[in-house]
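Weekly sync, protein design subgroup
Attendees: M.S., D.O., the rotation student, P.L. (late)

Item 1: inverse folding check
M.S. brought a backbone from last month's batch and wanted to see whether the design step gives back something sensible before we order anything. D.O. pointed out we never logged the input encoding, so this time it goes straight into the notes. Structure tokens as presented (775 positions):
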């Protein structure tokens, strides 16, 4: 039986690569260069000399593409959106600086070589691309993976890939003679699809894996995760994005689950095999006659790539507030042309936009920079030392003495504002876009077949609006608007944000109605908006929406939560997560305080600042968990409970007012507050305990409001723990599920009622002490 050509090629590739990899390892050179050299030896160059060479180049190209997918998937498994968030804005500034600088240098280099306008523009676009596959392999060889600078590099690569997609869309649209508006719509649609699949992936994939957790042995886990990888790669290719980017996003989603480390271990042999095939394929692309024919363009473009990327990538890190050493290391890591540039060059040739010479030139430059990348990374410290020597001491001190990137002088509220409003608006807008696509391409055509004409379209519009209603209703809900309006500096940005959210909601409703019912029915938008406002106050609908939101956030934060809390849920009442996440601040009510004499219900501090009054102390008495009718009096000390940033926000507002409560000392964690007040008489002590929601018992299926936990047990519900995900101060519409852990804060009355209802055990020393103290 004879081996097929492709199988014989694989035997030859691995045999030669095995020899060259051992030699390169012996001489202490990166393995990736050994693979590239092996590809050069068995490529078309030596076929005329009678040396064995590959026979099915088309098949090997497909294997190389699979290699890129595996490399990017493995890279994604080590990356997470939390790491990108911790890197702050640095990756984006770095990528944009590099893209702008290299695009300009590439364009100027093309014009210097006498190339046409389009050839020069496409060259500039290609030079902005870097190769994640090459960088990952080089970092792995040098044992640098997981270092702090790799977060910046990973983020910059994502942004550069997106720019590459823009360039491909531009090239395709340009050949079709479309307008600038049509080009913008095409790019926006691609980005929306990208974000939509990412959101759906985070919502669906971890949930399915958790449900099948007990069925996941090594073999099943490997097959399932590879299915996710190639499925996401296929979906991204269908919407016009690269398969490599799809594989990376799949890995990033799985990186946030509890299966990431095991998946990475199982994937490593497969990734190493196909990764080697990819780099052998790169070596096969080397054509000495092309190098000779276009020697000057190749040399010039190689120098522009190496030094241009080193300079502009480093500059981007510095502009975002990074240190010089980090900047140089990031710049050295990005000094190559990536495989996305191959796709752009091939597309340009296929569309007739660029000359035939551009593809072999860019491939040659890519191969050369593949060789140089490991050396640039390896000797980045020496490059840094040289730059350090030639840089004036005053400038060097200024660069390394600047504050860390991402730090600003804005008040804490703006950090909360940006996260809550911007992220929330984008996610809900993208979800609405997904529902509209579902309606236009699937639901609408199906219903119009069942119910022809206007009836089918009306049913489609109504069904879509019903599906989108919880998301649109929460877009109209403007959390935090009252606290912002109190401060003049916040009013204009807040009003702009509120207007954008409201306009977005109305635009989505109008588009849905006009798309399916026509302009004559646009008046329907008014009652729909009114209905959404009613829905936003409906506990049942909002409760189910909060369930979906909690599930999404639990999936998104799963790995981070497991890493920080361990695999077991912490139930200890004095050492639980809640007592460290919440802080207590003390404030004095002065004689001139404008709130003296006001009932707590009139203060609206929880609504405005997301904080609660847990204790009021006067000269004569203390009140734990005071009710809404309790009135503040001059001389009282008010103890407020909230997260650190919310207390800081309240404190900043109080400090600006001479007629408000005044801070007394620094805030402490809830745990420290309880411990420091442990010697109080039982009547005045506070306790923090958790109650498990059990299947078939009193709290299951009820929301916070209807469960009446606060009123029945004289306590505050300060948190809920679901599947290791922590929710601070859940909304009153939040529906309790079996397995939820409810965290309560209260005094001896709460303790006694919890014991009587058999919700906590009596053997805890703190409970016994509390009850004995009361007696």
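Designed sequence read out in the meeting:
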């Amino acid at each position: 039986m004879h081996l097929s050509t492709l199988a014989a090629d694989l035997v030859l590739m691995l045999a030669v690569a095995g020899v060259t990899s051992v030699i390169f390892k012996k001489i202490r050179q990166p393995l990736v260069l050994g693979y590239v050299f092996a590809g050069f030896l068995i490529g078309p160059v030596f076929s005329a000399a009678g040396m064995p060479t590959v026979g099915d180049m088309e098949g090997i190209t497909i294997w190389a593409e699979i290699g890129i997918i595996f490399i990017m998937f493995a890279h994604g498994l080590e990356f997470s959106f939390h790491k990108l968030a911790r890197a702050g804005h640095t990756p984006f500034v770095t990528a944009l600086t590099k893209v702008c600088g290299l695009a300009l240098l590439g364009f100027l280099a093309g014009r210097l070589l006498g190339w046409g306008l389009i050839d020069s523009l496409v060259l500039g676009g290609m030079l902005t691309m870097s190769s994640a596959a090459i960088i990952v392999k080089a970092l792995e060889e040098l044992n640098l993976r997981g270092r702090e600078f790799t977060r910046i590099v990973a983020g910059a690569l994502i942004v550069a890939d997106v720019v590459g997609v823009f360039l491909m869309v531009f090239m395709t649209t340009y050949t079709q003679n479309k307008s600038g508006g049509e080009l913008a719509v095409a790019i926006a649609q691609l980005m929306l699809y990208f974000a939509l699949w990412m959101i759906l992936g985070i919502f669906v994939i971890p949930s399915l894996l958790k449900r099948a957790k007990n069925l996941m042995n090594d073999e099943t886990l490997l097959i399932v995760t590879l299915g996710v990888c190639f499925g996401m790669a296929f979906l991204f290719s269908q919407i016009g994005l690269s398969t490599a980017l799809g594989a990376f996003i799949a890995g990033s989603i799985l990186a946030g689950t509890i299966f990431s480390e095991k998946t990475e271990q199982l994937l490593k042999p497969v990734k190493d095999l196909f990764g080697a095939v990819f780099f052998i394929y790169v070596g096969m692309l080397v054509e000495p006659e092309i190098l000779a024919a276009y020697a000057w363009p190749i040399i010039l473009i190689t120098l522009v790539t190496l030094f241009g990327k080193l300079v502009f990538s480093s500059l981007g890190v510095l502009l975002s507030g990074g240190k010089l050493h980090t900047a140089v290391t990031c710049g050295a890591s990005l000094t190559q042309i990536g495989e996305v540039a191959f796709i752009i060059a091939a597309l340009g040739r296929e569309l007739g936009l660029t000359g035939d010479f551009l593809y072999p030139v860019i491939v040659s430059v890519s191969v050369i920079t593949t060789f140089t990348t490991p050396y640039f990374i390896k000797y980045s410290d020496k490059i840094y030392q040289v730059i350090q020597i030639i840089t004036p001491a005053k400038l060097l001190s200024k660069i390394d003495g600047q504050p860390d990137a991402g730090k600003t002088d804005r008040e804490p509220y703006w950090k909360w504002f940006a996260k809550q409003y911007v992220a929330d608006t984008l996610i809900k807008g993208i979800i609405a876009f997904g529902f509209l696509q579902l309606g236009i391409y699937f639901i609408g055509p199906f219903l119009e077949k069942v119910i022809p004409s206007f009836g089918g379209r009306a049913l489609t519009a109504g069904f879509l609006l019903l599906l989108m209603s919880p998301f649109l209703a929460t877009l109209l809900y403007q959390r935090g608007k009252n606290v912002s309006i109190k401060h003049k500096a916040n009013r204009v940005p807040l009003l702009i944000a509120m207007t954008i959210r409201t306009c977005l909601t109305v635009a989505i409703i109008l588009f849905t109605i006009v798309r399916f019912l026509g302009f004559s029915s646009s008046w329907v938008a008014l009652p729909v908006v009114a209905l959404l406002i009613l829905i936003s106050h409906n506990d049942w609908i909002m409760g189910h929406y909060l369930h979906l939101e909690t599930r999404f956030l639990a999936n998104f934060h799963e790995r981070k939560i497991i890493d920080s809390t361990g695999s077991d849920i912490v139930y200890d009442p004095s050492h639980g997560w809640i007592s460290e996440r919440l802080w207590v601040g003390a404030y004095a009510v002065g004689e001139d305080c404008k709130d003296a004499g006001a009932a707590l219900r009139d203060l609206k501090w929880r609504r405005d600042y997301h904080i609660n009054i847990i204790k009021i102390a006067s000269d004569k008495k203390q009140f734990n968990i005071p009710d809404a009718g309790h009135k503040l009096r001059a001389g009282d000390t008010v103890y407020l409970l909230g997260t650190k940033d919310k207390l800081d926000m309240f404190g900043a507002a109080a400090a600006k007012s001479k007629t408000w409560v005044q801070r007394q000392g620094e805030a402490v964690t809830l745990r420290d507050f309880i411990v420091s007040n442990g010697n109080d008489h039982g009547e005045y002590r506070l306790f923090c305990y958790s109650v498990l929601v059990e299947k078939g018992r009193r709290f299951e299926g009820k929301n916070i409001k209807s469960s009446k936990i606060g009123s029945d047990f004289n306590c505050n519900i300060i948190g809920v723990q679901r599947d290791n995900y922590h929710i601070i101060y859940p909304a009153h519409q939040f529906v309790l599920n079996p397995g939820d852990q409810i965290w309560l804060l209260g005094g001896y009355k709460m303790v006694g009622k919890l014991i009587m209802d058999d919700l906590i055990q009596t053997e805890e020393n703190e409970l016994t002490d509390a009850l004995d103290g009361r007696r």
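Discussion: The longest helix spans residues 412-450. The radius of gyration is 31 Å.
Action: P.L. to compare against the previous round before Friday.
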